[in-house]
## 1
Amino acid sequence: MNEPAPTFSQHLIRIAHPWVLLLSAGMYALGGGVADYLGYSINWPVYLVGLAMLILLLLSSYFLREYFDLPALPEERRKPGEPPRLLRLGILQIAATCLTVGAVLTVMLFAQGALSPEGFLLLGLVVVMGLAYAIPPLRLAYSGYGELIMAVLLANMAPALSLMLQIGELHRLIALITFPLTFLYLATHLAISMPRYAEEERKGRRTMLLRMGWQRGMSFHNLLILLAFLLMGAAALLGLPWRLTWPGLLALPVGLFQIWQVVAIMNGAPTRWRLLELTAGATLGLAVYFLNFALWGG
């Protein structure tokens, strides 16, 4: 018996990547946490407006990516009887609305003096990265470098923007805390991409995993996790206080379990993709959570 076709609202939820949006909020909170740790009072209206700008940018990127995906496989993206152009038009309107509202919020912050010229440049770079990920001619989402762009945007640029909005400048703590998370994000994305390898290959999408190849991609996944936690430990030698170092290391046991699962798959064990996806999300999510707890709880 055939499953019912997904509704338009279900399409929207799938395109929006709600779990990524939740992760972006956690990443953004790291910047505010650094400001709070340094003794600055948090300007909550500015904080929330900045978070809204980030989420709107991500939504616009995802919907624009979907908009340019639709011409290739219209039948897989619409309800029975619904013209593909109607679905595409709705997606384009949502993306345009997100960009418009985000632009209005940016002007409001700049007019109120909450966005310094340096912060404006940083925000501009974030917007360029988001659009380059989704739209031609670059369209990095399927170039093999899209995952790297999103890793830098979420793990590095989002916390930096949050900190910039609060104190008007960057601080070395933000780099020491977030750089390892870039590696963890890439590992998480590779783990989530593994079950879709054949589908992405059939559609001709050059994701990072496809560009690297199955065997090399799984080995690189394991290396990324080890490097991430190694960098977390090394950050203490570079000046990161130990009270901000050890909380991130609490996710290491979950990361090692994630590596064990991939090694088992490489050795021919039965694939439990759902468990691997949950473990990958837990490794990154726990690291972000514990780091936020250390920053905001201090």
## 2
Amino acid sequence: MFSNKSGCRWACYDWKLGRILFMENEIIRICILVDKGTDIVEFIYKPLDVDFMWRSPFPLYPQGFPETIHGKLGKFIDYYPGGWQECFPNAGRPCEYKGADIGLHGEVATLPWEYQVIDSSKDILKIKFWVRTLRTPFYLEKALVLRTNSATVEIEECVINEGGEEMDFLWGHHPAFGEPFLDESCRINIKSAKVEVFPGDGISTTNLKQGTGTWPEVEGIDGKSVDLSRVPSPNAKVSDVIFLSELKEDKYEIVNQKISLGFRFEFPRHIFKYLWYWRVARGSFGYPWYGRTYNIALEPFSGRAILSEAVRNGYQITLGPGEKLQANLSATAFRI
């Protein structure tokens, strides 16, 4: 049962996947997998009944998934339903850190979290979630806030080092967008950024030349300019990983021009200094996508990939014993 009949309201259900929590108001509804990383697997703009989030081809399994099938990347891909993950304390491929093996995108995206309703009325809903990592001594907490008649989800976060020594980490958010919101009419609004182009996952095809450029124009493999602000069509047969840095604004927008609907993500760029742009238009072959997926992800991260590389090259975040880092973010649906 929902907490209220109108305005801001919430409900949590026990299912085979664990606790699934809904937060909604008059305009938006989000669905959160509490026992799987607090993944946001649904972010719906209710007036048009449009979900921004991408749904991956992998089924949602309970956490009793057979351990024998987990490969060298760890559990992330096997449990990846699409949607929006928190990535911490690693970003990107697995590595070793202080004697611990850390999997793809870290620990917290595959752990169960706890939650507590802080405020629940028709005017405001605030729910706190928290988790402690297993292979590292971190405590991560976030509160999600909805207000009546607002199309914004506010996110208040903090990281605490509970260890007795300095600890390093990478931190990021991994929202992936798909159909029906995503199509070739979508445009990405980013004021300015340095661009670095890398090959995508698996055996990938691309229309981009690896190298650097300035947003939104980069060089294509045919020598012509490619506008990265234009989302490729579903059958463009491309797959790329693109790092954006030297950001001029603390936000980005994705706008679908056909249905006049947009998604805005705001974040503190003094912490999340990079945007990782992952785009796949049925162009990633071999494991894990096999040429079947169409999605993009624009992911605010504290640095480039892999914690061990970050420590070697000085782009990690470091907290001393008992130290805390706080960040406020927000995600907004809007009409144009």
